[in-house]
Amino acid sequence: MDPLDKAILGSFYLSSLDPSVAALDRLRSRLPLPREIYIEKIQKLVDLGFVEKSDMPSLTFLGRDAFKVVLVGGVFDLIHPGHIHTLKAAKAQGDVLIVVIATTSTAAMIKKDRRIYHDEKLRAELVSSLRLVDLAILGREGTLYETVEHIKPNVIALGYDQAHSEKDIADNCQKRNLNVRVVRLNTPVPGTKSSEIKDYLGESFYRL
User: Fold this and answer.
1) Measuring CA to CA, which residue among 71, 57, 63 is closest to residue 16?
2) What residues are paired with 98 via a beta bridge?
3) Which fold is adopted by the domain 69-201?
4) What is the pLDDT of residues 63-73, one digit of tens each?
5) What is the three-class DSSP state of 61?
6) pTM (2 d.p.)
7) Which fold has domain 3-64?
8) In this predicted model, what pLDDT tens digit does every residue of 146-194 receive, in sequence order?
């Protein structure tokens, strides 16, 4: 499939998750081509059965199957090179990269002695500013699987140091009739962790 066609389909999918930005506006912010080109392309995708034409166009099942969505989750309280390498590796697994930002309450449950320096909305904003990220959203309260059911990714990518079990996640997704491939990513910057950086720099760094 033409990369531009795939990008258009991806923009419709992203706007179904985050309706605050229209699909065409989302697309043109990244690929500033004339509006007429996009309208022509969208009509072609409608004719091919990838997009359902309506007042609010949406993807058909055929359109959704035309690209792969990769989901990555994390706290992202302090963006460092390890995060960037992990996100790049995750994006290479598919076409659309969605990063789920753990809410402050969820992050505290995962690691009880964790100190969170930035609130969840700011963390989501920081990750959204990374160009390789297509969408950063806050995770839903509860288990990981409520969020997975909402996004319906093709791939869940785990960081090298995340405690989740690939098999457990795959099994739980299968129980929910979600066809998801779970992969464990390596990092070329081993040992680069937010907790270690915070310990080294000290709390005073965050009070500047």
Assistant:
1) 57
2) 71, 135
3) Rossmann fold (3.40.50)
4) 999 999 999 99
5) helix
6) 0.85
7) Arc Repressor Mutant, subunit A (1.10.10)
8) 999 999 999 999 987 777 788 999 999 999 999 999 999 886 665 555 5
